[in-house]
User: Fold this.
Amino acid sequence: MVSSLEYSNIEEAEVKYLLRAAQAGDSLAVQTFWQQGGNLNIGNAQGMTPLMFAAFHGHSALVDWLRENGAEVEQKTTAGRTALMMAAMGGHLSIVRTLLALGAVTTISDRHGMTVLFFARRAKHEAIVTALLQAGDE
Assistant:
C-alpha cells in the first residue's frame, strides 16, 4: 500500500489525472496509467484512491477492472473510509454487492466511529441497508 503522500516517481499531476479519470469512469485512461507502471492504490492527500472514486460515482465496470488488477478493497482514506463506504454513500447497490462478494468488511469504522451501515442509512439507501444487514448475517 502506498501512502497518499508517497508519490515516488509519479508526479502529482499524474495522480490527479488518474483520480479524475476514475471519477469520470474513464477506464482507458486508468488502464493506460496502470500499463505504464502506475500504482492503482495511490491516493490523494485525503487518501482517496481510484477504487474509491469509481465506487462513489457508480462506475461498476471500472470497479471490477480495478479489483482484478490489484486495487485494495480495505484501503482507507485519512478519515478511515473504505471503497465500500463510498459505494454506499453514492447509492450504488451493485458495487456494494460486488465489494461484499470480494470480502469487504462491513464492521470497519471511520475515525468518527461511523460504519458503512450508518452511511447507507443516513443517505436513505434502503436496498443497500438490506444488503449490508444480510451480509452481516452470513
Q: What stands out?
A: The helical segments are 12-24, 27-35, 50-56, 60-68, 83-90, 93-101, 116-122, 126-137. DSSP finds eight helices and no strands in the chain.
